[in-house]
Design a protein that fits this description.
The protein has helices at 17-26, 45-50, 69-80, 92-120, 124-127, 131-152, 165-179, 186-196, 199-207, and strands at residues 6-9, 30-33, 58-61, 64-67. It is of the alpha+beta class. The protein has two domains: 6-86 and 201-207, Glutaredoxin (3-Layer(aba) Sandwich); 92-198, Glutathione S-transferase Yfyf (Class Pi), Chain A, domain 2 (Up-down Bundle). Strands 2-1-3-4 form a four-stranded mixed β-sheet, with helices on one face. A hairpin with a 2-residue loop joins strand 3 (58-61) and strand 4 (64-67). The longest helix is centred in the middle third of the chain and has 29 residues, at 92-120. The chain starts with 5 loop residues before the first strand and ends with a helix. Residues 3-84 form the GST N-terminal domain. Pfam families: GST_C, GST_N.
């Protein structure tokens, strides 16, 4: 499928790989501008004009400009998805279940747990060391991810037993968790191995480099 007008900004993080992976699953042609989050590139005047948040990832598709990995990934699937790749939700109910998982993954696993680890670990020079916060964040992640673990013991994927955007987000969080020293259950490890073996993930991983 052609999508030559699409430009994705940002690489090198768990959040930037998400729309890249979706684009690869959809078979889209896109230009990737691999700027990093703390290289100064998001602070330039030209990029700030595009995205005043000075964050990545960011999407341009024709006249549409869009930030936030959830919004970008959802848009790409709704605009370009097919039953042969990643189809848009087939019903209001299916979209509601996807949104439920996305909200949970982004809110409880990404922002409330994993980013706390990054903030007070790799970015401690900026935000300060906080060993108690790190310990609590790891414990919180393990408590919350157990919900997905239990669900995935009954199904291969999070929603309607088919690969979808919620799986993209959970996978990136599980990779992030392992790299942060958080152990995963055997069932989550098995799920993660299946996700990482996807050709589109491998292609996205290769693209998501600085």
């Amino acid at each position: 499928m052609s999508g030559a007008q699409i430009t994705l900004w940002g690489a090198g993080t768990s959040r930037t790989i998400r729309p890249i992976w979706v684009a690869e699953e959809l078979g889209l042609s896109y230009a990737l501008i691999p700027i990093g989050p703390r290289t100064g590139e998001t602070q330039t005047e030209s990029y700030t004009e595009l995205n005043p948040k000075q964050k990545i990832p960011f999407l341009e598709d024709g006249s549409l400009q869009l930030s936030e990995s959830v919004a970008i990934s959802r848009y790409l699937i709704n605009r370009y998805g097919t039953t042969a790749t990643m189809a848009p939700p087939a019903s209001i109910e299916e979209q509601a279940k996807e949104d439920e998982w996305l909200s949970f993954i982004y809110g409880e696993l990404d922002e409330t747990s994993l980013y706390i680890l990054r903030r007070h670990g790799a970015l401690a020079a900026i935000y300060g060391k906080a060993p108690t916060a790190i310990t609590a964040a790891k414990q919180y992640f393990q408590k919350q991810v157990a919900v997905a673990d239990m669900h995935l013991q009954e199904t291969q994927y999070l929603v309607n037993n088919k690969f979808g955007v919620a799986d993209v987000f959970l996978t990136t969080c599980l990779v992030w968790a392992e790299s942060s020293g958080i152990g995963l259950s055997e069932s989550l490890k098995s799920y993660l191995q299946r996700m990482l073996a996807r050709e589109s993930y491998q292609a996205a991983k290769a693209q998501n480099t600085l």
